[in-house]
DNA sequence: AAAAAAT
């Protein structure tokens, strides 16, 4: 057992660690922290739940303690694949850098640029970002990465899954080669190995044992039902939930639309559930996650946005409403429970249509989970075909609020036909679709003009100009002068601020 | 097949 105090961390950082109540370092922390403190590169092969966030946050804080940030030139950069993960790293940083003079900014999509820009202008020591928004800021000239001394890549294999590798390569190339790199991945597929060979210098390879294998701490169950009908599945899900002694649980669905429908259905049946997936706006995602973490929300209905990496302590149950498309996802999903030595239960609803994917899961986990039996006659449960389809053609006036079909009494639990699905679909679509009476032409003019303005400023290092900047250059031929169009006389301050002079221009 | 991430 290694104590944090044995790792060479500064007294200030140790004090912050002590305040969180931790005294013993996890194996990856014990191995990585001394190496990272020396300034060496680290290749950490570790899953979530092994304590890897602190393994890179703590030494980073100590190494940055001497020195100050300059405007738009961060000294350290952490890249994470999802917004939630980035946010999690930020809270960890906030916790451990407490009382020290380090500043940080979270650069993720889905939230306004202005706060982020303000922080960048003032100068931050550490940037914690998702790749897209980071590069967006860079292209807008709000950011120079030439001062980066430490770069952290978290969950690299997931970035690969999400198609971020070109972005990561580009970010690597924007930072100085003499930087320190801390690179983490749960697995090492060839693409990732190539990346580490290209961008890490003589890294110390640290492999953390997989957190207790699924078999040991998670009781796995299969709930086979004879029908793939959504309504039958929802009924089965409720039965599983109701028979379990749940502290808190996550319900995983394969589709975002299904997440909405299932969450709505559970709520309708009096269960404390809320949806989370990538189509929900960022503040909702964060709020939902926060209340789930605090224990205020009992059931989180989620897409695979929540399958990996999210640090949600002590989830007692995981329900797979769908068999995941990839067997790997199953392992990640149920890994949300049974963490840190606690026991957990995982259930998966399986229909005849899932046999192929189920086989892959069973093969991967190498064991046969217990089978759950139901006291339900599924043959009587069937979703009515979506009402409204045929009617809409006829008259447009009756689609909302008018139900021309009486509820049928024959079913014990009236899971109404329309209310569950139709309103959900309507809500989900509404914000995304521009209103018919809006003026799309005007909107189109505003965007490219401001962008062009931002992009045409001489801030991009040569040779690293992105495809979009190329477009910007071409448009510049048409010369709009310096006029900024689309803000009605008011030009936002950030567009008028002087461009950054690069060090090699001086 | 689906989800995630920049707008």
Count the E strands: 16
Beta-strand content bin:
5-15%
CATH class of the largest domain: Alpha Beta
CA-atom Rg in angstroms: 26 Å
Strand pairing plus helix content: what structural class?
Answer: alpha/beta
Arithmetic mean of pLDDT: 77
Helix content: 40-55%
Reported CATH architecture of the largest domain: 3-Layer(aba) Sandwich
Main sheet overview: 7 strands, parallel
Shape: elongated
Motif (Q motif): 2-30
EC number: 3.6.4.13
Domain Helicase C-terminal: 236-380
GO molecular function, one term: nucleic acid binding
Q: Which secondary structure elements does this structure contain, and how are they paired or packed?
A:
Blueprint: E1 2-3, H1 11-20, E2 24-25, H2 27-37, E3 42-45, H3 52-64, E4 76-79, H4 83-96, E5 104-107, H5 113-122, E6 126-129, H6 131-139, E7 150-153, H7 156-161, H8 165-174, E8 180-185, H9 190-199, E9 204-207, H10 214-217, E10 218-224, H11 230-243, E11 249-252, H12 256-268, E12 273-276, H13 282-294, E13 299-302, E14 317-320, H14 327-334, E15 344-350, H15 355-365, E16 370-372, H16 389-394, H17 417-429, H18 440-455, H19 467-476, H20 493-496
Parallel strand pairs: 3-8, 3-9, 4-6, 4-7, 5-6, 7-8, 10-15, 10-16, 11-13, 11-14, 12-13, 14-15
Antiparallel strand pairs: 1-2
Helix pairs in contact: 2-3, 3-4, 12-17, 14-15
The protein binds one DNA strand of 7 nucleotides through helix 6.
Biased composition (Low complexity): 417-429
Pfam family, one: DEAD
Domain Helicase ATP-binding: 33-206
